[in-house]
């Protein structure tokens, strides 16, 4: 594995504090990854980080966004995707063109299509892109933001659902995406919230830290600055109901402290009982605006 040193993507400074050394707790792949915070602007990011040629190893075919859940968890996941689609479609006219960047297996795109929207996907994983086309009949371009062939001012909305944190340079990605949006077009972003209660309690065991896949972790304030710098104006900030963040974080902590203690197996992301235990807490977080995952709607400004 090769590493590269990077400056802060938000302000360009090379002045940071080491917060902790993270590990791949999702797939258990080898390596430790320094999580740092910029002293100038507060952005949190990996530094040094695996270079582009090394990152593909951390997205195996069993990576959870590529999978299809069944049973109660699968049903709940479908309900949530439909709910998200309704929120996105609410500000668009029927037939509006929507691009989802990092569409994975296409569950959200399918729900958006069912709402009468014209949808396109962009997905770097060949496995996920083929699954989206095979199972849902979706038009998915296999590639990255930087090699996609879309013309300028093509889309009424672009969706980045838990994707912006994966970009090596969110700034460069947002500048490219902005060119694809029509004037006044909407950008929908879902991403972990570094200022959340979850992160403060669990620290390096926080499920949504997910290094090294998550290369940048925003707070509301750092994401707002990033969007403003790239020609967007925030319209709304909300927080997701995400009990799986609590379940995964608890599992990470228990497994690290007592790897032979079988209780950690109960805190499984596919266990509806464990998810239900934390549902009231995540509902409260949403109301208090301290949730672990935030949803930002921004508009392209000229």
From TrEMBL:
Keywords noted in UniProt: Methyltransferase, Transferase
Sequence intervals crossing the membrane: none
Gene Ontology biological process terms from the UniProt entry: methylation
The UniProt record lists the keyword Transmembrane helix: no
One Pfam family linked to the record: Methyltransf_23
Name under which the protein is recorded: Class I SAM-dependent methyltransferase
Lineage summary: Bacteria, Pseudomonadati, Thermodesulfobacteriota, Desulfuromonadia, Desulfuromonadales
Molecular-function GO terms, alphabetical: methyltransferase activity
């Amino acid at each position: 594995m090769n590493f590269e040193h990077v400056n802060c993507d938000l302000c360009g400074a090379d002045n940071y504090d080491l917060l902790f050394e993270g590990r791949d707790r999702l797939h258990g792949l080898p390596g430790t990854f320094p999580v740092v915070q910029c002293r100038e602007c507060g952005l949190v990011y990996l530094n040094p980080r695996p270079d582009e040629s090394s990152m593909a190893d951390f997205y195996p075919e069993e990576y959870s966004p590529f999978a299809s859940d069944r049973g109660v968890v699968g049903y709940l996941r479908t309900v949530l995707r439909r709910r998200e689609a309704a929120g996105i479609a609410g500000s668009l006219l029927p037939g509006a063109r929507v691009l989802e960047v990092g569409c994975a297996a296409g569950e959200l795109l399918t729900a958006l299509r069912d709402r009468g929207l014209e949808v396109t996907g962009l997905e770097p994983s060949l496995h996920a892109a083929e699954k989206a086309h095979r199972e849902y009949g979706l038009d998915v371009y296999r590639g990255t933001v930087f090699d996609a062939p879309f013309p300028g001012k093509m889309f009424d909305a672009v969706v980045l659902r838990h994707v912006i944190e994966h970009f090596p340079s969110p700034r460069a990605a947002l500048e490219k995406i902005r060119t694809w949006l029509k004037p006044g077009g909407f950008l929908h972003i879902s991403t972990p919230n570094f200022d959340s209660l979850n992160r403060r309690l669990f620290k390096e065991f926080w499920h949504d830290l997910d290094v090294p896949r998550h290369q940048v972790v925003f707070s509301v304030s750092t994401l707002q600055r990033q969007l403003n710098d790239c020609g967007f104006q925030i319209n709304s900030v909300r927080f997701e109901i995400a009990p799986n963040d609590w379940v995964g974080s608890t599992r990470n902590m228990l497994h690290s402290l007592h790897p032979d203690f079988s209780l950690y197996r109960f805190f499984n992301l596919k266990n509806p009982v464990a998810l239900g235990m934390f549902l009231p807490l995540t509902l409260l977080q949403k109301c208090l605006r301290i949730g672990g995952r935030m949803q930002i709607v921004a508009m392209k400004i000229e």
